Amino acid sequence: MRDHATQHDFFIGIDSDGCVFDTMELKWKECFIPRIVEFYQLQGVSRLARETIEFVNLYAKDRGCNRFIGLIKSLDLLSQRPEVAARGFAEKCIVATSLRTWVNTESKLGNTALAEHLAESSDEDLTHALNWSTAVNQSIAELVRGVPPFPLVRESLKRLSERAEMIVCSSTPAAALEAEWAEHEIDRFVGRICGQEHGSKRETLSPSKRFEAGKRLMIGDAPGDLLAAEANDCLFYPINPGQEEASWRRFHDEALEKFFGGTFAGEYQQQLITEFDTYLPEHPPWLKATT
What we know:
Elements: E1 10-14, H1 24-39, H2 46-59, H3 67-79, H4 82-86, H5 97-105, H6 111-120, H7 124-143, H8 153-161, E2 164-169, H9 174-183, E3 192-194, H10 201-204, E4 216-220, H11 223-231, E5 235-238, H12 244-261, H13 267-276, H14 285-290
Helix pairs in contact: 1-2, 1-7, 2-3, 6-7, 8-12
């Protein structure tokens, strides 16, 4: 987008997994979690691991975070569960310092950046994390197909593309994004597809600042999308987890024209964000059950 000549006065950034496509649960439950259990040898606590990883990456405030961040947060939370310690698996959940350091210092948290890092300084734990992530990508490539966009996404994208510059802003690998958007022939509506290799969502949205305030919008399904929007002074439209079809209908029938008409900001947006905040808890349910 930095080198792309703008043709419109409005800007739209849009997330993909869980926002445009109903692929979040499919990818995490069938691809990510089995590979985490396998690579980090959590077979003996697989039920607890699945429950914990699903909470972090699907049902909590960290929903939609980068896969390496999600891995670290999941293992940290899992290590705190008394049942895991009782079965002697807490040590398997210890996150290597090298992985934490890389995640905290690298903005392009993808396999390419990790491979480049390893080419300069080999590390057993980082190599293991890369092998895990590569195996996840293979599982996704083999399994994730035939998942259409949510109803009214296509119609909304078509209307938006007539008046706005649009990019995909996602923490998913770009190759997977390109394949999914092309499979359903909606890639023609966006000017660029940006995945984890392009940097954080905050960085990916930064070119939106070329557009006037009030004329730039992020559409997403996770709190991280909201934070990226706020960091770039973008408006935000939430796709509520579990209520995606209703969210897209409201966007298509109501919010879209409010955005173009200049009445989206303010009270209307705040009502949407307040509602959105109720969908994802901060604390896992098993903590409440023990207090």
